[in-house]
Write a structure and sequence with these properties.
The chain is of the alpha+beta class. 40% of the residues lie in helices and 23% in strands. The strands form two sheets. A four-stranded antiparallel sheet has the order 1-6-5-7. A three-stranded antiparallel sheet has the order 2-3-4, with helices on one face.
Amino acid sequence: MENVKKFLLAPDESKDDFWESDFLIWVDWRDFDDSIIKYFNDKLPDEDKIQFECVEIEKEREIDIFLCKNGVKTAIPYAEDCTDRDTTLKSIQEYVSPKYQVRWYMDSLGSDTLAFCIGLTSQWEQLEQEFGSEKVAYYFAPIQADSVMFEMDMDEVFDLLEQRGEA
C-alpha cells in the first residue's frame, strides 16, 4: 500500500509510475471471469486466496463459478445468458470482505481495460484517515453491491469523466 500512499501524496507527479506499478490489477472487458479471480489471487497471500470452482452448465452462459469459503459453495449470481465482469468483481469483494477491500482505480475510467487494487481494509482506513475518505474514494472507488464499472453506458462514463474534470 506504500504505492497508493505515494500516489495520494502527489497524484499528478506519480500517476505514470503508479500506472505502471505491479500493485494494479488490470481487467479487460473480454477477460474470462475465472481469470479475473486468478488475477486477484496473484496478489493475495496463500491463506487468503479465493477458492473457486468452474462448472460447465447447460445454460447460454455455459458456466457457473462457485466461490468456496468456510465449507460453503456459493454461485456467483450471473444472469441466465452470460457472465459479466461487474458481477464477478462484486462477488470477489464480497468474498474477501471484511479483511480486504477491492478498489477501482478511477484513472482507468473510460477504458475497456480497468484497473483495480486490493488491500487490507485496515490499510485503506489508515489512508482515509491520513488523506480523507473523499480523496481516497476519488482515486480509488470502493466496490459495492451497486457498483457499475464495465456495464456503464458511454453517457454515464462521459458524465463521470466530466464530474471529475477529465472530459
